[in-house]
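Task: complex structure prediction.
Instruction: return structure tokens for all chains below.
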Amino acid sequence: MDWMVWTLPSALFFATIALMLVGMTIWEVVQPSTFRRGLLPLKTTRGDRLFIALLSSAWFHLGWLGLTDQPVWYMTIFCVIWLAAVLRWG
Amino acid sequence: MNKVENNRAWFFVLPVLVLVAFSAVIPLMTVVNYSIQDILDPHTRFFVGDEWFREMLRDSQLQSALGRQLIFSFSVLAIQIPLGIAIALCMPTRGIWVAITLVLVALPLLVPWNVVGTIWQLFARGDIGLLGVTLNSLGIEYNYTRGSTAAWFTVLAMDVWHWTSLVVLLCYSGLRAIPDAYYQAARIDGASRIAVFRYIQLPRLAGVLTIAVLLRFMDSFMIYAEPFVLTGGGPGSSTTFLSQHLATMAIAQFDVSRAAAFSLIYFLIILAISWVFYTIITRATKD
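Output:
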């Protein structure tokens, strides 16, 4: 594993993603998701919404890093809320 | 009646999952790890956090390479998709010419990328190449090693020559899959050639065109070997596209951390654009 030059933040990041995927899989088995139309302008399943939320979070981070000099974790906190909101109302 | 769902077929996906993990997921994780550290040599590294991302996002060379890349990819799509459809419509549907045209059309696809670059390097030369000599003798000043516009159009023409065939083959297969009944109905209604194209052929091609647009976009967005061989990114940096800029940074300058941050930005751009394409086109076919 040393060749992958792990750091604690990146390990936590991937562990979170992996946990999300496992969690979503279990949720899907327990209660299968259906297409629904929320605030987003398209019909999505739960997995679609997670993907949209994660991808947009990545872009929000890039925008934050590119446009401001503020610490990155401000954006991270916002994105956690954003992720929950998209999953719930998206 | 209760429908019994059997998901055991998913186990057959496992080998691919392992393959993708080793070929894509683990390298991607490593790139993420690189991007947040300063790696001086295999044993010396420092955690730097988001520094490389901030630097890369404000890098003017990267921004102009991205601009050139986007213009190039959209030019490729704007030329190859209509041209591919047009050629596919002109191709014969029965008889011996089917096989002959298919082989002729497929030929450029068999040529490796760097060989395409070499072919065009010779073809476009002002002193011995057919294209270069012809253009120059017509009075058009053409030198792809000196003029950035000439270099740009040569790279574009080369990509059109190499890859339009893919669009043609996809469209041709799509056209052949349209049942004859549609054309018979159109004939009974007295539909014009344009109406047949607009209301029968184009809608039935939507599926293959999705694939064609996606494949051509992604391929042109990661174009590397052909311009590398043909122009080496020059003159100046007029044909330096994203992948070449990245490769110079990662391999020539061995600046793996910066290059890792850059390639993650590159990855996110491709992911976002592909997702948008996919969503738009799958929704269009559903409606």
